[in-house]
Amino acid sequence: MHTPLEDLVNAALDEDVGERDITTEATVPADARCQARLIAKQDGVLSGMEPFRMAFDLMDADIVDWDALPDGVGVKKGNLVARFTAHTRAVLTAERTAMNFVQHLSGVATLTARYAAKLEGLPAKVCNTRKTTPMMRRLEKMAVVHGGGVDHRYNLFNGVLIKENHITAAGCIREAINKARHGTHHLMRVAVEVSNLDEFDAALESGADVIMLDNMSLDKMRKAVKRAEGQKVVLEGSGNASLERIRAMAETGVDFISVGALTHSAPALDMSLLIDNV
């Protein structure tokens, strides 16, 4: 039985290869072997080495002498990220799929590291969201961790997060929180998204465990933090959390800042895969 990651990488290979790799089969001898080298072409943080390797393994590359850097390490332009010997046909056929995984996920880790660096010396942490590529969530969220961020809830089953439409459907913030309390077990924390101080006060008075300050001005965020002093509540800033603004958001005193861009807008890290015949 395949693991979920094997199923994902297999599906990606099927999408890219189709029936067969006609170019490689026409130009490369069936018994040829090569040494492959993965090279970083810009500075960044590495992530995605597991699916990178898996793409070649699923093509029966018969890899030997595998030597690779681990996820989470920083790389510089020109660094050797991985080196291995394998069947040339398998390497060339799986190359684009393998590179798509490692370049995208390293891009997520690299962008996260830039955000995390902005918070150096402050207690606030940058975290991911559910704004992920379909079927890539586990890998993208792990890439955020590799970049120095922290994880948010994985899926809708992992926690209660009452947002604007839930509040509308329930009638008000207090009613939404009460229904959530009675609709879940006593170990489940309840979070509420608010966009102004009146909603914040309602959420605080209703006993929310976590309050998300969505698209609030820095002044309003500071006031919310002040009003929460002495309360057992976690405060999360969200919305408009750009690289230019995130440190000022953290300086308001919030505990976490969620950034959807970490996973939905990270540029791929530039890398190259080169081969030599052996």
Description:
By secondary structure, the protein is an alpha/beta fold. The protein folds into two domains: 4-115 and 266-277, Quinolinate phosphoribosyl transferase, N-terminal domain (Aldehyde Oxidoreductase, domain 3), CATH 3.90.1170.20; 120-264, TIM Barrel. The protein is built from eleven helices and twelve strands. The chain has helices at residues 4-17, 22-27, 49-57, 88-118, 137-146, 164-170, 173-183, 197-205, 218-227, 246-250, 261-264; strands at 33-40, 44-45, 64-68, 74-75, 80-87, 125-127, 160-162, 190-194, 210-214, 234-238, 256-258, 271-277. Strands 6-11-10-9-8-7 form a six-stranded parallel β-sheet. Strand 10, helix 10 and strand 11 (256-258) form a beta-alpha-beta unit. Helix 3 (49-57) runs antiparallel to helix 4 (88-118), helix 4 (88-118) packs across helix 5 (137-146) and helix 6 crosses helix 7 (173-183). It is elongated. 39% of the residues are buried. The mean pLDDT is 97.
